[in-house]
């Protein structure tokens, strides 16, 4: 099982980007998925959580600007980032709880995708 994050890049302050995370491999079902980010010199922080049923939760710093969504048929999660700020600059990591069978669930991490926001 692998998680592959993509879609990072460079945006201007006030702009938008969308990052994606695809789970692949021998998957029974993908449960809760999360986006984390880590800025230079800072600890990794939780940005957004999306349950399998679509319920979401966000860090206060991104609430109202970022929207997490998912397509369960494609085992894919998205993070639409609007109103970007320079402080959103970070490597964005996806994490997921994946069932490889009805009774076995493991945590997986993607490799990260860099988002840079210029002022």
Task: Describe the protein in words.
The chain is an all-beta fold. It is 0% helix and 61% strand. The protein contains no helices and eleven strands. Strands 2, 4, 5, 6, 9, 10 and 11 form a seven-stranded mixed β-sheet that branches. Strands 1-3-8-7 form a four-stranded antiparallel β-sheet, with no helix packed on it. Strand 5 (45-50) and strand 6 form a beta hairpin. The termini are far apart. The model has no long low-confidence stretch (mean pLDDT 97).
Give me some keywords for this one:
single chain; 119 residues; mainly beta; seven-stranded mixed sheet; four-stranded antiparallel sheet; elongated
Largest sheet: 7 strands, mixed
The rounded Rg comes to 14 Å
Shape: elongated
Termini separation (Å)?
38 Å
Present the secondary structure layout.
Layout lengths: L1 E5 L2 E4 L4 E8 L4 E10 L6 E6 L5 E3 L7 E6 L4 E6 L8 E12 L2 E6 L3 E6 L1
Parallel strand pairs: 2-11
Antiparallel strand pairs: 1-3, 3-8, 4-5, 4-9, 5-6, 7-8, 9-10, 9-11
What can be said about this structure in brief?
With 119 residues, the protein is mainly beta. It is 0% helix and 61% strand.
């Amino acid at each position: 099982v692998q998680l592959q994050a993509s879609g990072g890049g460079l945006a201007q302050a006030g702009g938008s980007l969308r990052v994606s995370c695809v789970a692949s491999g021998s998957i029974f079902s993908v449960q809760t998925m999360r986006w984390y980010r880590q800025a230079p010199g800072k600890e990794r922080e939780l940005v957004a959580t999306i349950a399998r049923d679509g319920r979401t939760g966000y860090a206060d710093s991104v609430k109202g600007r970022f929207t997490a969504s998912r397509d369960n048929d494609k085992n894919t999660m998205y993070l639409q980032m609007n109103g970007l700020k320079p402080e959103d600059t970070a490597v964005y990591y996806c994490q997921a709880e994946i069932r490889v069978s009805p009774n076995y669930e493991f945590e997986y991490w993607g490799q990260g995708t860099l988002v840079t926001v210029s002022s």
